[in-house]
């Protein structure tokens, strides 16, 4: 069978990889990092069977570079700075910084090296493993089922949008690069939504699709950005404040949605004082009870005497259309909202999706960890450091 590359453009990734990459290039070029691939559920067949194909795809990925038209698009985003574009002009992934191997039935992948050279591997690795995995199933049947389910989702959104609007509009986005059924299927889904539901569908985290379809690229920061500061020499108790302050200095008012669950919402809000609450446009939910989280956010803004109608809450944890609509009905008369739907948009084809991640586990030789508001999403490779992090932030 001829080689069929999964990744054909370096724009085929999440916007937040670029928006985190830029401040790290500007301020943390010396940081060394380790990222590891993890599968959280039981696949239909052992992922170790994909090893040879994964290696071939990684070889191909490391031959790609940013094309002139891609650089021109990035340069046209007002928050992307010229020196970052110049860096991307000469950037290539280095094969020596990533390796894959099998341990029994498990597929292991690790990227290790300068963070500004290895952080970009994450989304490409996840999209690659997903597509290689699902190529072994009946593609025609999966796409037919996917189209049927997508049509049902669109009918549900249309019916909902016909209802009387609340104080703020219903807006949802595609957040589905990392766990998509495949590259072509994500393009079909996003193209269909942009054409059929322009009043509700407002963008995609996929930079390539946003460019090609003329829609808004969506994204700010992920957990790796905040976790990196656990290994940068700042006092551990201050790592969130240091990360948020660097973001403010880098973007000067752009990209103002902060991620809250690196050490849990309660610990985040203790650091998210009046200064940050005024400077950031809103918050993103990615674990735990979304209603409880949203109520905590609104109560925090109320305590600080900030008008929540001027802020935005973005929900992105395991959403589907019914959950997004329910959250909208609960909150839309009090705050602006956005809903990032991932797997349920780009991998709802009648097959069981893989629950895979590739997470930062070390920065500068020090362990880093995430204390999620959902216990199953807590991620750490060093139990001693995890216990210390819990103690410092008073997380039980």
UniProtKB/TrEMBL annotation:
Coiled coil stretches, renumbered: none
Nicotinate phosphoribosyltransferase N-terminal domain ranges (all copies): 11-130
The keyword Phosphoprotein appears for this protein: yes
Reactions accelerated catalytically: 5-phospho-alpha-D-ribose 1-diphosphate + nicotinate + ATP + H2O = nicotinate beta-D-ribonucleotide + ADP + phosphate + diphosphate
InterPro entries to which the protein is assigned, alphabetical: N/Namide_PRibTrfase, NAPRTase_N, Nic_PRibTrfase, Nic_PRibTrfase-Fam, Nicotinate_pribotase-like_C
Keywords: Glycosyltransferase, Ligase, Phosphoprotein, Pyridine nucleotide biosynthesis, Transferase
EC number(s) on file: 6.3.4.21
An example molecular function term from Gene Ontology annotations: nicotinate phosphoribosyltransferase activity
The keyword Nucleus belongs to this UniProt entry's keyword annotation: no
Top-level taxon: Bacteria
Residues recorded as bearing Phosphohistidine in the entry: 223
Entries under Gene3D superfamilies matching the protein: nicotinate phosphoribosyltransferase
PTM comment text: Transiently phosphorylated on a His residue during the reaction cycle. Phosphorylation strongly increases the affinity for substrates and increases the rate of nicotinate D-ribonucleotide production. Dephosphorylation regenerates the low-affinity form of the enzyme, leading to product release.
Pathway: Cofactor biosynthesis; NAD(+) biosynthesis; nicotinate D-ribonucleotide from nicotinate: step 1/1
HAMAP family: NAPRTase (MF_00570)
Role description: Catalyzes the synthesis of beta-nicotinate D-ribonucleotide from nicotinate and 5-phospho-D-ribose 1-phosphate at the expense of ATP.
NCBIfam families: NAPRTase, PRK05321.1
Family per record: Belongs to the NAPRTase family.
Name of the protein described by the UniProt record: Nicotinate phosphoribosyltransferase
